[in-house]
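Priority: low. Protein: Binding-protein-dependent transport system inner membrane component. Input follows.
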Amino acid sequence: MPRFISTVVVIAIMNEILSPSTGLLNNLLHNVFGMTPVYFMNEPGWFRPLYILSESWQYTGWTAIIYLAAITGISSDLYEAAEMDGATRLQQIFHVTIPSIMPTIMVMLIMNVGRMLSIGYEKVLLMYTPSNSGVSDIIDTLVYRTGLQNQNYSYATAIGLFAASLV
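Result:
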């Protein structure tokens, strides 16, 4: 599925925002609340929320275009009829807009769930640190670490073949 911002750029922006020394979030926490800096990218408890947040933000632009195109395709006659029946703007959204774009919502839901379940190797590798390895390790990063970093090529090949047989 297309996206407007590449994975490398998203992670670089996250690293800048969450940096313990110069990051916007840590400066805010320190200046407003007097907290000590937190290295969010190193904390195992923050890996999953940051992954989900970055994944959602990365695809927001493309998803918005799809939904706007679906809304544009709704006949204005439906809105005029609802207005003549006395429907408020909120009622028009719930009784005209959402039912009209429900097929698009379902297709996007299926595609996004599939995309989220096939966890992206690039993003996990870029967010990976030894401190958060317990929660961030997936089969692809295990193959990378076993084969290239530990130079155990036969074991990495076996893991890779097993992973390929699952797909």
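DSSP finds ten helices and no strands in the chain. Residues 42 and 129 are 6 Å apart (CA to CA).
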